[in-house]
Amino acid sequence: MTYVRNCWYVACWSADITEKPFAAHILSERIVLYRAPSGALVALEDRCVHRNAPLSVGRCEGANIRCLYHGLLFDADGRCIEIPGQDLIPEKARIRKYPVADKHDWIWVWMGDPAKAEENLIPPVAGLQHPEWLLGHGHIDIAGEARLMCDNLLDFTHLSYVHAAGFAASDAWARSRPKFTQLPNGVRSERWVVGDKGMRTREDAAPIDGWQSYDLLLPGILIMWNGFYEAGTAAKMNMGAPDPALTSFDVSLTCQAITPLKEKQTRYFWTWGPRKGPADEAVLAALMSIADEAFGEDRAIVEAQQRVLDDRPDAPIMPTNSDQGVLMYNRFVAELVRDEQSGSASPIRATA
Amino acid sequence: MTYVRNCWYVACWSADITEKPFAAHILSERIVLYRAPSGALVALEDRCVHRNAPLSVGRCEGANIRCLYHGLLFDADGRCIEIPGQDLIPEKARIRKYPVADKHDWIWVWMGDPAKAEENLIPPVAGLQHPEWLLGHGHIDIAGEARLMCDNLLDFTHLSYVHAAGFAASDAWARSRPKFTQLPNGVRSERWVVGDKGMRTREDAAPIDGWQSYDLLLPGILIMWNGFYEAGTAAKMNMGAPDPALTSFDVSLTCQAITPLKEKQTRYFWTWGPRKGPADEAVLAALMSIADEAFGEDRAIVEAQQRVLDDRPDAPIMPTNSDQGVLMYNRFVAELVRDEQSGSASPIRATA
Amino acid sequence: MTYVRNCWYVACWSADITEKPFAAHILSERIVLYRAPSGALVALEDRCVHRNAPLSVGRCEGANIRCLYHGLLFDADGRCIEIPGQDLIPEKARIRKYPVADKHDWIWVWMGDPAKAEENLIPPVAGLQHPEWLLGHGHIDIAGEARLMCDNLLDFTHLSYVHAAGFAASDAWARSRPKFTQLPNGVRSERWVVGDKGMRTREDAAPIDGWQSYDLLLPGILIMWNGFYEAGTAAKMNMGAPDPALTSFDVSLTCQAITPLKEKQTRYFWTWGPRKGPADEAVLAALMSIADEAFGEDRAIVEAQQRVLDDRPDAPIMPTNSDQGVLMYNRFVAELVRDEQSGSASPIRATA
């Protein structure tokens, strides 16, 4: 697995973390998470120094966590502070502590150099209680490599084929190309899909113009805005971003996080929902139904792709015109990984 | 896996192939099969050149097949003929096309050099509508290496032990030895089993003489004829093949195909049935019941053998007198594989 | 797996072995066990010399066993004595014979040099019909390396944490340290736990003194004696072994055997019960209920530990004061293994 380490990975939902240990896997590392009575988050290597029992089957005691094999107690910094029946505690009796943050209803863990962990590098996703958006949420596990899901999100040609049912996406998505822009911490995609059918739930057959803009940010965080406008709007805007003052319908925001649990095991978190308004609960229910179907379609194709790669790990790929975003993002990741591994990593900036 | 490539492998039953994609594995290669509206069979590498999604989860469009990840379209020759949103199609955008034939109710795929694929090399098995034989059929999957099933079919000593129940085979099968003859594309076994009990369904205790003749042809195709005659017939024939004019009873024909799907995964196809006659439906029903039991017995012993080999891949073998056919066939296969791999392969001829 | 070979491993319960073949795994070797009509035990390599079918799916014929693939017959010494349809039997047609013994209701198999197998090296465990003890029994399979279970039994600090529920063990077990003594074939642990709560079933809250003495003998045989005495007894004995004449209550004996089936697969056999007396059946029932819960707790922690090691096979350990027995036993095992592998092995003596 080749992933950037100096960035924030989504471990779970904020609500998952209580004063009981929670076991997470990120980049094949075992991490135990819990909340101290003060509310402070703790993220530690999930491995007792004594005989490698996982602390996540242990017990929180205040801000500390006790291994329930032979009773060693660790503080929130990962230092062993008690060995039953032993007075002296060796200096080396400590486990790795991970920078961790609770923001926007996700728990974020920094997998790289702790000195570089800054909370303002957490992507500006919308939390579940966002004043502007009414968001539903979910997550699914995918038996495939996380980078395949990033590729999936960077080439929306697949909407017309993978999601012909789930999103009722027309061929327009495959024929049109978004404009990709390199960001300091990812890539941005913007486009009009002219003469689209709109959301699956729309009954009117008259074509409309759809505006879609998303950022895919390290290490696999999607923030995407979709809005539909009356036909002709794209041209009126000279194919540029729609004027915020324009009347739009079926506007939605989705934030998604792709977390590599282990090799070929990915957890895919998502929120999605309409702008708050009069009919929003019914719209949200419709979107959630679409989401269940569509994320299942993504999982099916990515897992099928993974099985082919399992049989032929060296199978070549042949990029097409639709891979502009995939290539831009993957080149960016490859450079960062190379820099990190050579020790010349420069800090990644938050999106301006 | 060491198997001859320049021969026809059974992929599935003819009826399995429709205008929807069918996924097959042969020799660890993924193959997608479908029928064009013209009825023509298509067998292609089951892998899109773009990002390795399997075409078998795609969609047939006339004689073509579309990848349902990003929409690339391939023709029946494996050439990519459409990339959504892209005008130029690179010459290298093509996948492997396999020679394929629909014959005798089986779909045959040629895994070697396409230039050497000739339909007359397909073994002369009997199809389900054969005028002379009333054939039932089935297939089972075996969690074992395909060559172990070939070995099984080449040493019928096992009838007395593995099939003491299923075929009610007597010790006579273990004590007698068939005559093996090398064929241009396999080996032939012929023998009388003198003083046999006959089929399991036979109630008469008086011994009879059984004649069994089979060819095991590349890459694991069995064509076997069994007939029982009144006691003394073997001697009357000087142990040679029975005179076709002789009255026989319980005559049956079975055709079988052993296909290596992947390493240690084998699909075993079979047809079996009596010569058409007055009581044939009842006889067929009895044979099908025997078949279910007996092929299950073969699977059990071969899977048990495979588990021992999994634990000790280097375990030696010790051939016995009963291995004459096994040795003849495996030596033949080893020579062909060596020739194929060295590039000096000479074409295999059909049985005269 | 690094285990001593020149010792007796428990394969199964005596009652498991009949005149039908029984398949066992020890140290990743396949062994077939059966009883000859004379009652004599037979333990052979579970692999036919012909084509590696397992003999355990074969058939016992008197003191012999027949492979039910092609009918080879082996005698109780592992010599092939019949090959159907073949007169000459090669000298090399033999399989390994293991020394085997039926003692104290366990079947013991010697995995090392047969010349060194002496029955008096079988540890003096108590059989199910022991005159002094009323013993229940059971076994469980653990998806973990056998040495992890030996480590578990050599550091009873874990009682206070793993078995806080199952045994209701107090912190006293973690705070006190037993005295370990090297034995010719293992290690001995002895200790008083002063001011203990006693068995889980005890209702009286007044503290009592517990005496625990156990031997862990090669290759993972535990013989453990637990007894509780009125408070003050430990001091009265100057922390030495209790006077047998003293009145004790809740006395129990447990014998346990840890058998490495395969890498990361362990079978854990145990007997446990009270000294025979008036109320013993009720006490035994209570102990069996505790046993089910407690052995499940051991399995859970050892399997969790194994999963961490699977992810990080090179993870360091950090011994503590509580590891005295673990280190003593493992050093002893490592020396024996080194001697065995260098060919300089001296015989292991039975416990004096």
What does this structure look like?
With 352 residues, the first copy, chain A, is of the alpha+beta class. Helix content of chain A is 20%, strand content 31%. In chain A, the strands form four sheets. The first copy, chain A, has a seven-stranded antiparallel sheet with strand order 11-17-16-15-14-13-12, covered by helices on one side. In chain A, strands 5-6-7-8 form a four-stranded antiparallel sheet, with no helix packed on it. The longest helix of chain A has 32 residues, at 280-311. In chain A, 45% of the residues are buried. Chains in contact: A-B, A-C, B-C. At the A-B interface, helix 2 and helix 5 of A face loops of B.
For the termini of chain A, the CA-CA separation is 29 Å
Shape of chain A: elongated
The number of helical elements of chain A comes to 6
Largest interface in this structure: A-B, 30 and 25 residues
* Nearest-integer average pLDDT of chain A: 94
What oligomeric arrangement do these chains adopt?
homotrimer
